[in-house]
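Local shape tokens

___
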Amino acid sequence: MNKRRLFYLLVLNTVFFVSSCSMKNGIVDQVLEEPDFKEVSVHDPSVIYADDQYYIIGSHLSLASSKDLIHWNKLSENVESNTLFDNVKVELAESFNYAETDTLWASDIVQLADGRYYLYYCACEGSSPLSTLGVAISDTIEGPYKDQGVFLKSGTTNLQGEQFNPSDEPNVIDPHVFYDNEGKLWMVYGSYSGGIFILEMDENTALPKENQGYGKKILGGNHSRIEAPYILYNKETKYYYLFLSFGGLDADGGYNIRVARSKTPDGPYLDSENQDMISAKGTEGSFFDDTAIEGFGSKLIGNYQFNNSKETEKDGYISPGHNSAYYNTKENKYFIIFHARFPDYDEYHEVRTHQMFFNESGWPVIAPLRYSGETIDHYTDDQIEGEYKIINHGKDISSKIKTPSLIHLKENGSIKGDLNGSWSLDENMNAVVIIDNHKYYGVFISQWDEYNTKQTMAFSGMSEEGIAIFGIKN
């Protein structure tokens, strides 16, 4: 058989295969069923994969697990009724007494080379940087854990025995411990106060290597509202991505998730406008100066509401933040996991998981709708064509809830409606949406729309200015 004849047969077989695929709402791709979401409330969820399932640990020793990131099971509720320590109030008495508190804040669990699990816990008074950071060990992910003691303190004197300076030195909470691409162990940590710091760790002791002090500062200071650092490496882009939460965590605090990246785990970290994040800090002598920091970091997600015509609960997010992230090597999928509040739900919060992609510029973009098992596919122009609600997340730190504009993506590549522009999709499924002369690089993906109980097309993109947009097809 000659090569030309073989080529035509392959083409015909491909056409037959595509025409035979399942169709739903005009979409030729994976058909999604309505997920039976099982919700869980864990503040500041930090993810680890163990025993063939995902675990998230958060503040107050809250713990949950899931096989699929869709159905969650609560394993530990709070410090008083936790299952992770036999007698936590006795074992961690040093932390509770020093920090003048009866609870713990954002925790993190990592499995080290010896196969054991290391729980990094932190306690903080809240209105001051009186904080401790310690570690406990267990042979199993669910414990019980045995305390190894406190190794960092803040709020009174620094590590040199001098008066602690909260404008420049760290509040020692919000740890994330991770291995870099070379197998070295690190801990990034910090919240508000003096900024975000990183320490190289000794995996034999699970403690910081000697003579580092508080470590290297990578951003923040002067009581700027930046916290919840989490670092994830991408082997394809060869960047370390530093995720952060800007703003206040309560419902009217304007909490939002941002990202910067670096070629090395300890920085320098730059945002999409090539700004060094070391400059992201409040003005000298200020407290919670959001205007000084809101121009830094590529903003991934903030407050929004889609305002659907149907009466739906939790239509959008308020103060989404304090995320962790995970790469599933078997499925070749990236996920971002965070807690979120909701319009008209006051301070109530739940965990949300969204699939995450890296655009052609090497920046992460978050799928607009929460994960329900979808896999990105190759899409045609007619699948994408249609009317979309679009959210522009901006760069502000504000309690304002973003609401959608209505646009129509034409099959000829033009965009009409409340906003005008164009869109394109290349053979590698890299998407570009241009609106009002701003280019957003991202992806189209068919997802389950829980707000309207149907499968639909969605778009997520990031501009060179570090602004994200979400689009959902009506």
Remarks:
- The chain has five helices and 31 strands.
